[in-house]
Amino acid sequence: MVTRDSVRVFSLNCWGIRYLSKHCRQRYAMIGDMLCKEEHDIVLLQEVWSEKDYLFLKKKLACSHPHSHYFKSGVIGSGLAIFSKHRIHDTFLYRYSLNGYPYMAHHGDWFGGKAVGMAVLSIGSLTANVYVTHLHAEYCREKDSYLPHRVVQAWELQQFVRHTSAGADVVILGGDLNMHPQDLGNRLLMSYTGLRDSYLETDKFDGCENGLTLIADNAFISKKELGPFEEGIRIDYILFKGSSKLEIFCDSMSTTKGSVPDYPFPYSDHEALTAELRLELHTPAEIGGGKQSKDQDSAAEKVAELVDIVTEARTEVKVGLHCAESMRYTATRTAAMGLALLFLELFIAAVPWLALGAEQPFPRTSFYLLAVLCFAILLTTSLLYIFYTMELKSLQGAEDQMRLALGSLQEKLRGFPLAQPHNAQRKSPENQEPSAFDPEE
């Protein structure tokens, strides 16, 4: 016997930076009106940076989505919020260990406290773990200095999802991953967790061509931001997977298309995503028959592919380690120069006391300004040294975890007698299957 149910999931990066984002207040009103009208089951929002805006939406959606949670993190918050028709029983926030650099203030990611938020819901008799996240942005694809940070974030995200969703019947993850479909972090997340992409899984799609979510036709987007991708990029996702007793199918998916009828501007600089998920609960007999039909060769191929992906991720983290060590060395050398300059100044200041009757060789104002400069150099470089040391430890921790995981995967691969090194061309996202390293197996 098969029991069916459906869940409508909505995800949007709201671009809600008060006083900086264009038409922020009006757009939140538009988003609230649309959500009241559409009545999605689960709403996942990112970049709701102001708690006042969250409270505005909470009040507006009180009837359609009576259950909600706002995840607080960092200096200005995580920007993550969940609204739901179904009761939220539990929530948890995990803040990523790496998230850019504080001195890159014009990018602002470090101040945002990027994280993944989890909510445990009850959908009928089923337990659903719902995740919302926002990863570090990619500002320059050709020379991406944040790539090691984003890879570590993807690694921590897949760990968090795997370790917290073991008892869930339904797993849903939505958000702005800031990664293209074939990027390393995306492949790492999808392969390790077995999550499936709604856009690739559905046969019924209505939206931007190729599922793009950051498009040139959006009034808030300049073509310069898109770089070599003139039409746009796909960086926002709704991912899902079932469990041993439940299968999930994406019956349809849609995105907004850069404009909103009857309004002068769109909801955000990102396009909104909506996925219609069908849940099918099977009997134990049906589940057992399905598991017996698994192909061992296919499982070996998936593990081998995962070995390649983790090896690539580990290499990228090592590149980040080398850069962090270099920057810490530069900070140390600069601090030493500042300290030497300070000692020189102290020696000059002591001249009048060592040579009685001698006058101060430097004007007093210049002397004080030089002292301030020395202290500023020492303070700045000390803070940078501490920051780079923290970055190094986070990168080293991730690299150690990847090394252990790689050893475990290789040991598992040796358990397949016919398994060969994975030199074949990678499978396309359309053919991705649940992870061979899923803890449920």
List the helices and strands and how they pair.
Elements: E1 3-16, H1 24-38, E2 42-48, H2 51-60, E3 67-71, E4 80-84, E5 88-95, H3 109-112, E6 115-123, E7 126-134, H4 147-164, E8 170-176, H5 184-193, E9 196-197, H6 198-201, E10 205-206, E11 214-215, H7 223-226, E12 232-233, E13 236-241, E14 246-255, E15 273-281, H8 284-292, H9 296-354, H10 364-414
Describe the fold and architecture.
With about 450 residues, the chain is α+β, with helices and mostly antiparallel strands. The chain folds into 2 domains: about 5-280, Deoxyribonuclease I, Chain A (4-Layer Sandwich); about 305-350 and about 365-415. Helix content is about 40%, strand content about 20%. It contains 10 helices and 15 strands. The protein has helices spanning about 25-40, 50-60, 110, 145-165, 185-195, 200, 225, 285-290, 295-355, 365-415, and strands spanning about 5-15, 40-50, 65-70, 80-85, 90-95, 115-125, 125-135, 170-175, 195, 205, 215, 230-235, 235-240, 245-255, 275-280. The strands form 3 sheets. Strands 3-4-2-1-15-14-10 form a 7-stranded mixed beta sheet. Strands 5-6-7-8-13-9 form a 6-stranded mixed beta sheet. A two-stranded antiparallel sheet has the order 11-12. It starts with a strand and ends in a 27-residue tail after the last helix. The model is unreliable at about 290-295 and about 425-435 (pLDDT under 50).
